[in-house]
Amino acid sequence: METVRRWVQVLSTLLVNGSWDFPFTRTIYQGPLKVLCAPGLNCYSCPAATTSCSIGALQQLFASLRFTVESGQLYFGLYVAGFMGVMGGILGRAVCGWLCPFGLIQDLLHKIPSRKFGIPYALRYLKYGFLVFFIFLLPLLVVDHFGAGEPWFCKYVCPAGTLTAGIPLMIMQPSLRQAAGLLFLNKFIIMLMFIGWSVYASRPFCRTTCPLGAFYALFTKVRLVKLRLDPSRCTNCQACHQVCPMGVKFNESPDDAECITCLACLDKACEFDAISLEIGGLPVGGRGRATATAKKSLS
Question: What is the mean pLDDT of the chain?
Answer without folding.
Answer: 91
